[in-house]
Amino acid sequence: MNMLSATLSRVKPSPTIAVSSKAAEMKAAGEDVIGLGAGEPDFDTPDNIKAAGIRAIEEGKTKYTAPDGIPELKQAICTKFKRENGLDYVPAQVSVGTGGKQILYNALMATLNPGDEVVIPAPYWVSYPDMVLLAGGEPVIAEASMQTGYKLTPDQLEAAITPKTKWFIFNSPSNPTGAGYSWDELKALTDVLLRHPHVMIMTDDMYEHLVFDDFEFCTPAQVEPALYDRTLTCNGVSKAYAMTGWRIGYAAGPEKLIAAMRKIQSQSTSNPSSISQWAAVEALNGPQDFLASNNATFVRRRDLVVKMLNEAEGITCPTPEGAFYVYPSIAEIIGKTSPRGTVIENDEGFATALLEETGVAVVFGAAFGLSPNFRVSYATSDEALKEACTRIQKFCASLT
């Protein structure tokens, strides 16, 4: 008897979680490890948001809610979309899930049939292809390069679309590269999508507020209103509001799709935590001034990491527009040998040797669909980043 589903053989565990787990195990064993793999801010959740969660507990708001969100949170989401993105939605067009990941998964489960294709630009967040596979679809990877700033070109998108394409997944600023699409760059992609009315657009805007310098965020339905009825605009409170553990994601889109996602959620997790929902209301409706302060910290850290990595032998590190990641290339390092005799055959080998020989944990590029690279999360202290980058510099200099 085969105990496990055949569908499970189509997917793999999350590499980012695996890296963080291994680093934690080494730390617990007393080793000096600096973890640069986790994709979460090191800031604490703002006090007003924590207070809203505490208040919800004290007021007894600890019961079941509607499967996909309380009315107050859905209204706050509608207000946010209008205020920040110029998009008009009503609560019936909004779904709230247990984190952004559940929102994306619900949408794919609600829409994909065997053989349906989903176009995913690479480098991609590690979960996109596997969620498509779990839902019975087929990922179609459209590979961007460092030469284009890790951004998909209109010609690449056009070439990836077929009559079987159901979704195009779009993420800006990007995990893992931090690359952000300007209005004109995004308009060039939406012009392609207008020519293919059978393709729906799933936008992952989780890093919307984590943008730097003079970059201005925009989202597909905002850039091209004609795509409004085909777009699921996804977001959440995890990254910008430092609420990763609260687990609240949300999306707005066509009512028929939202209703289908509600049906799936009602038979899987049911409602997200009631306490977290009330905290998210405060996050969206409350003061937003801390965002600028947090971003200033991220800019300082980004500039530090980019500078130090570009000073390392064999590493080329572009400067990203947002999020809190960099995605350097190690093309010049492949084939070299580490001090302990490890031949660096690929980026996974580089990340493994780096962790074992220096105690610095990064995520290898193959996990994100583009090699030879690695991802660094700079959502940690300046001191830890300086020490980690110094170790990376010494490691690279020691390769022969």
In short:
Its cofactor is pyridoxal 5'-phosphate. By secondary structure, this protein is α/β, with parallel strands linked by helices.
Description:
- The protein has 400 residues and is an alpha/beta fold.
- It has two domains: 6-44 and 290-398, Aspartate Aminotransferase, domain 1 (Alpha-Beta Complex); 63-285, Type I PLP-dependent aspartate aminotransferase-like (Major domain) (Aspartate Aminotransferase, domain 2, 3-Layer(aba) Sandwich), CATH 3.40.640.10.
- Helix content is 40%, strand content 12%.
- It has 13 helices and twelve strands.
- It has helices at 15-28, 47-58, 71-85, 100-111, 127-134, 154-160, 183-194, 220-223, 255-266, 274-285, 290-310, 347-358, 382-398, and strands at residues 34-35, 94-97, 117-122, 138-143, 165-171, 200-204, 231-236, 249-252, 325-326, 360-361, 363-364, 374-377.
- The strands form three sheets. Strands 2-8-7-6-5-3-4 form a seven-stranded mixed beta sheet, with helices on both faces.
- α3 runs parallel beside α10, α4 runs parallel beside α5 and α4 (100-111) crosses α9.
- It is globular and about 60 Å long.
- The mean pLDDT is 96.
- This is Aminotransferase.
- It holds the Pfam family Aminotran_1_2.
